[in-house]
Every structure is written in C-alpha cells, then in structure tokens.
Amino acid sequence: MKKIGVLTSGGDAPGMNACIRAVVRCGVSHKLEVVGIRQGYRGILEEDFIKLGNRSVANIIHRGGTILETARCEEMKTREGIRKANEILQREGIEGLITIGGDGTLRGATALAEAKNVKVISIPSTIDNDVYGTDYTVGFDTAINTALDAIDKIRDTAESLPRPFFIEVMGRNRGFIALEVGIAGGAEDILIPEVETKIEQLCLDIERSFKRGKKSCIVIVAEGDEAGGAFSIAQQVWERLKLEYRICVLGHVQRGGSPTARDRVLASKLGAAAVDALVNGMAGYMVGELKGEIAFTPLRETWEKRKELDSNLLQLVKVLAG
Ligand code: F6P
C-alpha cells in the first residue's frame, strides 16, 4: 500500500484532530502518502483532497472540531454515491481509507468496504458513545466533562434559590451522556430513551427530594427521551405540581472545546492501530478499545448490534440521590 486517505464525517467530536494527527504521523512513519479528504464523504464525491504531512498536523492535538471539517452526505446513502466514491478513490490511487466518525460514518464505511475496491478501517468518534465494539468513542469523555462543568455550576444556583432544574444533554438516540453526567453530577433523576419515563413517578421523586430536606433537584434529560426533551417534560411536571422550575439545554457546547487527556490518548492509540491494520492488510473493520485492549469489530456489526448501557449505574442513581 502506497497511498491512504483520511476523513472525518457526521457530527464532529473533540479528539478528531488528535486522531487525524496520529493517522498522518503513523502513515508517514510507514512511508505512506497520506491524503486528507475534506468534509467527509462529500469530499470524496467532490474530489476535495489535500496532501498531509507531519507539519500539516502540527499543533492540533489540543484543538476541538476537525481541521478536515465534516458533513452529513445524503448521496453516500445511495448505490450511485458508493459507486462514484469507489471510482474516484481508485482513480486517485487511494488504496486504503480511514474514516473517523459515528454511526452514520460507519454505515457509509460499511458500504464502501463491501464494494471491496478500497480497504477501509474506521475509528469510532462521536460524543454520543453509541457505537458497538468499543467501550468509549473519541469525544465522549470531553463531552461529559464539559456537560459536568455546566451541571456543577447550575447546582450552585439551584442550591441558593431552590427550584427543580431540567438539564437537557445531547444523545439523539441513546442515553450514554445523560447516564454518566447524571451519576457524576449527583442528579436526582436521569431520563433516557432506553427506559420509559413515567411522569407521575418523576413528580413524586421531585416532591420527595424537597421533603427530605434537599435544597436542589437536578433532573438530567437525554435529548432523545421518548417522553420529550427538557421543555416538554418540565411542562408535564408543571401541569401536575405547579412548581416553579428552570430549564437549561446544553446543546452544542458539548461538542466543542479542547479534548481531555483521555480523548487525546484514545484518539492517538486508535489512529495508530488503524494505520497498522491497513499496513498489515486488514480491511472492513472498526478499531476500538474494549477493556483497555485494542479490538477489531467487523464494520457491519458496529451499527447492526446494540451497545448496552451499564444497568447498574441506572439503579445506583436513586440510591445515590439519598
Ligand atoms: O451525533 C452527535 C450529536 O451531537 C447528537 O448528540 C446530536 O443529536 C446531533 O449530533 C446534533 O446534530 P447537529 O449538529 O446536526 O445538530
């Protein structure tokens, strides 16, 4: 293999730059030519390529976002899009492709890999952590620490001027972010799509927490909760309790910022492992980390199989809310 491409796709996540840097520098150390593809899969279709060397990725390990930019590309969901992408990659002499992204990126990577023209290895990177085959995705650790910082600050005001707070965190389909920040932020309740939200029970929990002498009550709501986001849930509680409340939607703040040490290290390890995999002739896998060890999962499994939440954590919330 002489030439590889690297792209970031879908929702950006802190640590993507650290990952690009690792891919480029490990690629160069293997004497590979490394091409950056701008704006994800769209960049393949629009032939938006840039040559990357060790100096092009200097001073980016600590930066959020992605220097290659990203996009959500509808055309790559079509047979014609995949055919065209394969043809362009072949014409460019790009024999290996490393994709960095979440669920949508992995689906695109699967379709490209199954056409068998280009060797594809993917790296899981999304703040949502909802990818099967890795304990953590690149970006998750930074996102939960960013959210936690905000939750701690809200706790200060919630304690001083007692009112229940409904804090909405990201996680379109899954509750990984909500669960972790809920535990770490000492939430009174955590509402996630994986567990049916019972408004009556939530009202009881809120009432009881104030009756037990607690001054503040923080409810973490995953944006994808089946009962609605923070606004809808707060309204439903208000209709029953008539208790003044406040809402905070953390939104895209969670996607930005300098990656944590954990994310930089994970990104570096997975970037290096992805290049090694290509050099050793592997293709059609995602490289993740399971129980501290590098692990390869067939691309299709990463989105066809469901990663489970830690149910022990869910049970712990109530006990720890005291
Ligand atoms: O997939 C990552 C994510 O941040 C989700 O948590 C969120 O629902 C979505 O992306 C937001 O996407 P956009 O940036 O397109 O609004």
Can I get a quick summary?
The chain has helices spanning 16-29, 40-45, 79-92, 103-114, 140-160, 176-184, 199-211, 230-241, 261-279, 299-304, 311-321; strands at 3-8, 33-37, 49-52, 96-101, 119-124, 164-169, 189-191, 217-222, 246-249, 285-290, 293-298.
Features:
about 325 residues; alpha/beta; Rossmann fold; 2 domains; 4-stranded parallel beta sheet; about 20% strand; binds 6-O-phosphono-beta-D-fructofuranose
Architecture blueprint of SSEs:
Layout: E1 3-8, H1 16-29, E2 33-37, H2 40-45, E3 49-52, H3 79-92, E4 96-101, H4 103-114, E5 119-124, H5 140-160, E6 164-169, H6 176-184, E7 189-191, H7 199-211, E8 217-222, H8 230-241, E9 246-249, H9 261-279, E10 285-290, E11 293-298, H10 299-304, H11 311-321
Parallel strand pairs: 1-2, 1-4, 4-5, 5-10, 6-8, 6-9, 7-8
Antiparallel strand pairs: 2-3, 10-11
Helix pairs in contact: 1-9, 5-6, 6-11, 7-8
Sequence stretches where pLDDT stays below 50 over 5 or more residues: none
Helical amount: 40-55%
Count, helices = 11
Q: Which molecules other than protein and nucleic acid are bound?
A: 6-O-phosphono-beta-D-fructofuranose
Mean pLDDT: 97
Radius of gyration: 21 Å
Largest sheet geometry: 7 strands, mixed
**What is CATH's topology name of the largest domain?**
Rossmann fold
Termini Cα gap: 58 Å
